[in-house]
Amino acid sequence: MDAVPAQTGRGEPAGIAFYRLLIGCHPAEADIGGDHDFDRHVLACILAAAAMDGGLLAERVGVAEHDLNDLLSRHFPQADIRGLGSMQGPAPADDDETIMVRDLLLAQRSTEGDVGYWLAAMVARRAMEPNHLWEDLGLRERPELSRLLMRHFAPLAIRNTKNMRWKRFFYRMLCEDDGFVMCTTPVCTQCNDFDLCFGEESGESRMADRRREFLRGGGDLSEVSARS
Ligand code: SF4
Fold first, then answer.
1. Cα torsion for 89, 57, 44, 121, to the nearest 10°?
2. Closest C-alpha residue for ligand 1 atom 5
3. Where are the domains of the chain?
4. CA angle 44, 33, 130 (to 5 degrees)
5. Residues near 158 by Cβ (< 8 Å), separated by ≥ 6?
């Protein structure tokens, strides 16, 4: 069962509608200059992307149900989330890989408080999805993931000096620190998986729609809204 309808009454893709429910604006319009606004944007993107996947929201974002309720009430108190009832329920236990990535992040936090704690679990869970990590987090572009990691997990993030793909970088760190087996050679330049680890992470944001393309082209968003 889809967690949210594919299209909303406004004609918006479901992920964008979900984001708007939480933040109050279209993702392309979000001001993320300040750290607090950036954190809320990141949380909303992850929740929206997970909601688009269907199923139990807590499982899709990798946090316990009571943590999800706490997150929603503290960071999105104005959002009417009663409609999410069918998406709520206890999350099943995390698998070993998710726990390893989560613990890697938790061990190298650079902020205090619940947001970094939740994000460690959320990033780890979304890293189990098949696309580039920034895409499965619902972010607008890869630099937002780099900022998230540098802000909340700086001791880990600064070790990515070769700009590896972030998901592969996590596993490289697990190889080095915990004996996790991903790397077939000790030296990246001799590895057949080099392109998997260092290739571009280009792609289409799950929060993108034709409005963003229009804005990139210098258009007026109000015109597009009127046509939707
Ligand atoms: S390129 Fe090969 S050796 Fe380097 S991190 Fe990737 S899998 Fe490991």
1. 90
2. 172
3. 14-222
4. 40
5. 150
Residues with CB under 6 A from ligand 1: 168, 172, 182-183, 185, 188, 191, 193-194, 197
| CA 194–ligand 1 middle distance (angstroms) | 6
Report the distance separating Cα 44 and Cα 128, nearest Å. Answer: 19
151 alpha carbon to ligand 1 midpoint, in Å?
25
- CA–centroid distance, 142 to ligand 1, in Å, is 20
Q: How far is the CA of 198 from the centre of ligand 1 (A)?
A: 9
On whether the CB atoms of residues 106 and 13 are closer than 8 A, the answer is: no
- Distance CA(98)–CA(95), nearest Å, equals 5
CA-proximal residue: ligand 1, atom 8 (nearest): 183
Say whether pLDDT at 131 is over 50: yes
Q: Which residues, in sequence order, are bridge partners of residue 13? A: 7
- Under the banding of pLDDT at 50, 70 and 90, the label for residue 8 is low
Mean pLDDT of the chain: 83
Q: Is the predicted pLDDT of residue 226 greater than 50, yes or no?
A: no
Neighbours of 62 (CB within 10 A): 27
